[in-house]
Amino acid sequence: MNIYNAKQTRQIEAAIAAAGTDYLQMMEQAGQAVARNILCQSTTNPDQIKAVILCGQGNNGGDGLVVARRLCQEGWEVSVVFPGGLSKTPDSIHMLERLKALSVSILDPLNSPNEKENAFSLIRSAHWIVDALFGIGFHGIIGEPYDEYIKAVEESKATVVAIDIPSGAHCDTGFVQGPCIQADHTVTFFSHKPAHLIYPAAQYCGKLKVEPLSFTHQTEASIETMQHTPVFEEVKNWFPSRHPNSHKGSFGKLLCICGKAGMTGAAELSAKAAMRCGAGLTYLMTPKDACTALSCKLTEPVLIPLSQSSEGTLSHQSIPTILEQLSSASTCLIGCGMGDNAQTQAVLDAVLQHAKCPVIIDADGINALSHHIDRLKEPTAPVILTPHPGEMSRLTGKSIAEIQENRLQTAMEFVQEYPVTLVLKGAGTIIALPDGHIWINSTGNPGMAKGGSGDVLAGMISAFVAQGIEVGNAVVAAVYLHGLAGDRGVQHFSQHAMLASDLISMLPGIFLDLEK
After folding, report:
1. pLDDT (mean) for 276-305
2. What is the pLDDT of residue 221?
3. How many CA atoms are closer than 13 Å to the CA of 231, on its beta-carbon side?
4. What does each C-alpha distance from 162 to 87, 105, 130, 135, 341 come to in angstroms?
5. Secondary structure (3-state) at 271
6. Across the chain, what does the average pLDDT equal?
C-alpha cells in the first residue's frame, strides 16, 4: 500500500480538481466520511450526545465544519470552537456560512475572550471531540492559544477523533516536538501518511481509518511515491507455491555465522527461525564450545564447530573453513551473538570481501562493521543491515535521540551513501532499499521488546532470501510477518510474558494462512 507525504497528498488533490472535482466537493466528501465513522461508533441516543469540533482557520477546519453540520443534522448537540480565529480559506468560509443556518454554537474565543471559559466548559462536558485544527500542513511546535485547548482535550473524558493526523504531529517525519492531540481515532483520506506509521506520531493516532473517497483511485495512481507499507495480501503474493518435485536444495543453503561460548541463545533463535521459515539447508558455524552447547538443542541444522579465541569468539583461524562453506551458500547471516573484537572483525572482513551471495549483518556483526564502515562503499554482493537505534548510532555517529527524531531521513540518507538494504528496527520499523524505495511497517507491539526478537527477525530475513525471494521483498515480508507473529503472540502469551521464542511458535499458523 502506498504512503503519501504532505506534498504528494496535495498533488493528488490538485489532480482530482483538474479532473473536474473541485476542492469544495472534496471537503464535503472528507467531512461526511469523518462524520459517518463517528456515527457508526456511537450507540447513545442522538439527542443526548454532545460534540465539540475544534477548528483551525484552514481547510482542515473546513472538514471539521462539514462534520459539525452532519452531526447536527443527526440530532447531536454540536459546538464549534475556533481557538485561533474564524475560517480564512474560501472553502472553509463557505462551509462556515452553511453551518450558521443550523442550531450550532460557534465560538471564537480569540476575538471574544468572554467565550473562552465557555469553550473549555464545552470540552470538559463533551462526549466526542473532533480535532480539525491543523492537519497535514502543520510544522513546528504548537503554542498559544492552541496549547491550552490541547491540554483541555487531554483532561476530558471524550472520545477524540483527529482529521488526517493529530494536530501537533509532523506529517512527513512522524516527529512530535510539543503539545499534540491524543486521538482515539484518526480518519485520513487517500492513503496512509508517514505520521500514521512513524513514532512518536503514530502513538497519537489511535485507531486509524483510511477513507479512499469516491474520486481518488485513478488520480492517486498517477502520483508516484517511493514510500509504502506492506499488507498481508501483497506479502502473500511474494511467496511462490512449492513445486511437487522440490527437494531440500531447492530452497537454498543458508550459512549462519553466529554465537560465542557462553552466549548461544542468539544463534539458536536465528537458526530455528530460519528453519521454521522454510530454508532448505541451514549450516550453523559457531565456536567449538558454543557448538557443543547447541548440539543438545538443535537437531535440524548442520552444526560446524570452528576454532575459537581466548574470549570464546570465532578465531581468525576459522576463516578458511568459513570461506569454503560460503562459496556454495545461497545466503549468509553473520553477527547474532558473535561478539565484537579484532578476531570477529577479521571474520566479517573476509565474508564481505569474498561473498557472492546476499549477506545479512545483524547485532555484533553491525558493531564489528561500525569500526570500518567504508567496507560498505563497494560491496561484492547484496548486503542487508538490521540495526536497532543504538547500533544505528554506532554506524552513523549520530546520537540515538537524533536518529529517533527523524528515523525516515536517517534511513534514507544512509542508503544514499552506502548501497545496502537497511532495516532500522523499532516501533514502525523502516526498510530503506538501495533503489530509494522506503517501506514502513505497521505490525508489531511492545511485547516484542525482548532480547532475542532481533535474532528471530535476522533468521527470517535470511531464510526468505535463501529461498530466492527478491531481496527487497524478502526483507519487507520478514519484517511484516515478524511483527504479525508478535501481534498473534500477545493473544496467547500477553505483552508481558511473550518471549522471542514464542514468535517462532506463531509462524506455522501464519504460513498456513499464506499457503491458502
Report:
1. 97
2. 59
3. 8
4. 18, 20, 6, 8, 50
5. helix
6. 95
Neighbours of 383 (CB within 10 A): 22
What's the CA gap between 364 and 337, in Å, rounded? Answer: 6
Q: Which residues contact 97 (CB under 8 A, 6 or more apart)?
A: none
Tell me which H or E stretch contains 188: strand 185-189
Give Rg (Cα) of the chain. 27
Distance CA 273, CA 462 (A): 9
* Helix orientation angle between 265-276 and 500-514, rounded to the nearest 10 degrees: 10
Q: Do residues 57 and 86 make contact, with C-beta atoms less than 8 angstroms apart?
A: yes
Average pLDDT over residues 26-39: 97
CB 511 within 8 A of CB 505: no
Nearest residue to 374 (alpha-carbon basis) of 322, 422, 432, 420: 420
Closest to 230 measured CA to CA, from 437, 414, 439, 497: 439
pLDDT of 469 above 70: yes
Residue 101 has pLDDT above 80, yes or no: yes
Buried b (16+ CB within 10 A) or exposed e, 176-192: beebbbbbebbbbbbbb
SS3 155: helix
Give the pLDDT confidence of 399-445 residue by residue, as tens digits.
Answer: 999 999 889 999 999 999 999 999 999 999 999 999 999 999 999 99
Other beta carbons within 10 angstroms of residue 326's beta carbon come to 22
